[in-house]
Amino acid sequence: MVLGEHCLGKIRQTKLAIIGVGGVGSAAAVSLLRIGFSNMLLADGDVIEITNFNRHFQGYPEYLGWNKTEAMVDQLKKINPWGKYVGLFKYIDENNFDDIKQYHPDFIIDAIDHLDEKIILIQNCLRYNIKVISSMGAGGKKYPELVKKGTIFSSTDCSLARKMRKKLKQLNITEDLPVVYSTEPSNFTRQQPGSLFTVTASFGLAIASWIVEQLDQK
Asked: Sheet holding 178-182: strands in order across?
């Protein structure tokens, strides 16, 4: 047994909220479920389309046109029908964080693409003392071996992390929050860069690993 019974017991009792169930969030959800977590809230306001089909763990033809949370919950139930899953088909903003808070998550996974929404989520996590880990930019990256776990103020070579650091400093937020990022230099020119499944999945797996580490070290 890799994880002790004490850690596995905590895993079974832990409630997770995964905000953003695209390439990174869906990878985190499936890997955490297979480790033993089975109490999850999933939130996203987007749908499964041909344009994002390639990077989702719920990327199956039967889910085309479904909202991402509905498809993710359905996929998780196929793996573990005894789990407890809550799907919110909405983007999280300053007006609806209570929808997450009332779920009483032990950990929140920030797998949101957009900076402003990430900042709102982080502010609320800090306000209510909820542990959070944030995914930085996986778009435009090629090399999964360069995906790292670290902190926001120690991360390098990530334009999203750089923008987040600037915004956090403007808001006088000094907490060195845990993040997953890539040290691969950004060299894309498109505002909405494409992404590879190997990289987005590696981000999600690294996030799942961090969650397990937090429970295994207590």
From this structure: 84-88, 39-43, 16-19, 107-110, 131-135, 178-182, 147-151
Determine the topology of domain 5-216 in CATH: Rossmann fold (3.40.50)
Residue 214's Cα: distance from chain center in Å? 16
| Torsion angle of C-alpha atoms 9, 12, 16, 20, degrees rounded to 10 | 130
CA 79, chain centre distance (Å): 19
CA 165 – CA 146 distance, rounded (Å) = 20
DSSP state, 94?
A: T
- pLDDT of residue 190 exceeding 60, the answer is no
Pick from 109-113, 156-160, 193-197: least confident: 193-197
User: Which residue, among 109, 133, 139, has the nearest Cα to 23 in the 3D structure?
Assistant: 139
Counting DSSP H helices and E strands in the chain, the numbers are 7, 7
Check pLDDT > 80 for residue 162.
yes
Is 120's pLDDT higher than 90? yes
